[in-house]
Amino acid sequence: MKNKILVTGGAGYIGSHTCIALHQAGYDIVVYDNLSNSSREAVNRVSSLIGQPIEFIEGDIRDAESLRQVFAEHQFFGVIHFAGLKAVGESVAQPLKYYDNNVSGTITLLEVMAEYDVKNLVFSSSATVYGDPERLPIDENSPRSCTNPYGQSKLTVEHILEDLAVSDESWNLIPLRYFNPVGAHPSGQIGEDPNDIPNNLMPYISQVAVGKLEKLSIFGNDYSTVDGTGVRDFIHVTDLAQGHVAALSYLEQQAVPVGFLPINLGTGKGTSVLELVTAFSEVSGEDIPYQFADRRAGDIASCYASADKAKDLLKWQAELSITEMCQDTWRWQSMNPNGYNAT
Ligand code: NAD
Ligand code: UD1
User: Fold this and answer.
1) Does any ligand 2 atom lie closer than 6 A to the CB of residue 128?
2) Does residue 226 fall inside a structural domain?
3) How does DSSP assign 279-294, residue by residue?
4) Does residue 8 register a pLDDT over 70?
5) CA gap 105, 121 in Å, rounded
6) What does the angle CA 218 – CA 222 – CA 224 come to, to the nearest 5 degrees?
7) CA 276–ligand 2 middle distance (angstroms)
8) How far is the CA of 272 from the centre of ligand 2 (A)?
9) CA dist 179 to 52, 286, 301, Å?
10) Ligand 1 pocket mutation pick from 6, 7, 37, 102 by most atoms within 8 angstroms of CB
């Protein structure tokens, strides 16, 4: 029988791509999302891409009763937990909203999982938990620290998961620490759809390329990097999606519980902001006007993963290049200049 997976936040950017990968790998999925940062249209498009309706429940992870109904109705092998808020600036302005949603919401989810004896969890953590890294590439044993409430909410959940694994050895808790997810499904049907002016680099570049935004500001050109601009480990969202499938399949193969097992999902390669702008311009054939601006508060010079643990344990590694990340972002952006909104 196919294992059934609850996907919280499955209507969002990474969740929607992961639903496709899970379906292709033979899992049954149930998506649970409050649509606070996504649209029903994303779920509809995933359904058409996989050629069958997705079981979708509109609900909030802070609503224990609603979760209980879902767990009572389905026998889950485990949960992939994407649901969360992710805007760093907003988290500084509204910290309580972030702690409530990301931390309290996760506690409620874990409590309901425990009630129904579902002890397998893959959690969306972030490279942000490494703060300003002491050494590169960043491995999973690097010290953790955070400078904003969003990052702190991810780190707090990691601490909660560690404590939980100590308290009860039957849990399998894998925080996947994503580096910088970019790109879109190769069909151009689903992708990242920021609500407002994007905070992150790739959606900003693609909106400049499509003519929605005038000019990119590059935050800092005096870092000690290859060309003075920030360096990041960009990873294609479909590679990231496969990483979740690999984590689940790893859990299915374990004879004894793994406890708390953090794993980086990155390519292991750093790319500078200017290198990404150049690659995008080449792929799209569009000019990307930019200007240099001051460094952004809280930014670090360079951040890229050691991807060894994922390769050793999960037998997973990222396959897609920066060119493919730009091509797929551009296809999504040019086919859907207004994201999931038709107008
Ligand atoms: P997203 O906003 O597109 O997806 C998150 C989904 O969770 C949305 O569909 C939203 O409606 C839903 N959601 C939020 N709060 C909820 C709640 N209380 N109950 C139910 N659903 C809720 O974001 P994403 O980029 O797909 O990120 C997924 C996860 O990965 C998040 O937890 C994010 O913090 C984490 N992450 C993202 C990145 C990135 O660069 N995108 C990097 C590292 C970690
Ligand atoms: C940011 C968040 C991080 C979060 C991640 C994914 C901050 C400080 N960090 O990471 O917590 O996990 O997004 O959501 O916000 N850049 C520009 N111009 C722009 C936008 C970005 O030059 O308009 C530069 C940045 O200075 C950085 C690089 O591009 O050097 C990548 O930025 P971004 O895409 O926002 O990701 P991170 O800062 O790595």
Assistant:
1) yes
2) no
3) HHHHHH-----EEEEP
4) yes
5) 14
6) 115
7) 13
8) 12
9) 31, 27, 14
10) 37
The CB of 15 under 6 Å from ligand 1? The reply is yes
Averaged confidence pLDDT in the chain: 97
Catalytic annotation, residues: 150
pLDDT of residue 86: 96
158 lines ligand 1 (CB under 6 A): no
Q: Identify whether the C-beta of residue 262 lies closer than 8 Å to the C-beta of residue 190.
A: no
Instruction: Give tens-digit pLDDT for 330-343.
Output: 999 999 999 998 65
Q: Could you tell me if the CB of 13 is within 6 A of ligand 1?
A: yes
What is the Å distance from ligand 2's center to 243 Cα?
22
Q: Which domain holds residue 56?
A: 4-185+234-266+306-318
Atom 36 of ligand 2: nearest residue by CA position: 200
Residue 1: pLDDT over 80: no
**Radius of gyration for the chain, computed over Cα atoms and rounded to the nearest angstrom:** 19
Query: Which CATH number do you get for residue 129?
Result: 3.40.50.720
Task: Determine if ligand 2 sits within 6 Å of the CB of residue 298.
Answer: yes
217 within some domain? no
pLDDT tens-digit map of 80-107: 999 999 999 999 999 999 999 999 999 9
CB-ligand 2 contact for 147 (6 Å cutoff): no
Mean pLDDT computed over 154-160: 98
Q: Domain tally for the chain?
A: 1
> Does 277 map to a domain?
no
Task: Name the band, by pLDDT with cuts 50, 70 and 90, for residue 48.
Answer: very high
Across residues 22-39, what is the average pLDDT?
A: 97
Distances (CA, A) of 7 to 119, 204, 304: 14, 28, 27
From 219, 221, 278, 288, give the residue whose CB has the most ligand 2 atoms within 8 Å, as the site to mutate: 219
Cβ contact 246:253 at 8 Å: no
Residue 289 lies in a domain: no
Which pLDDT value is given to residue 343? 52
**Tens of pLDDT along 190-240?**
999 998 899 999 999 999 999 999 999 999 999 999 999 999 999 999 999
* Omega before residue 137 within 30° of 0, cis: yes
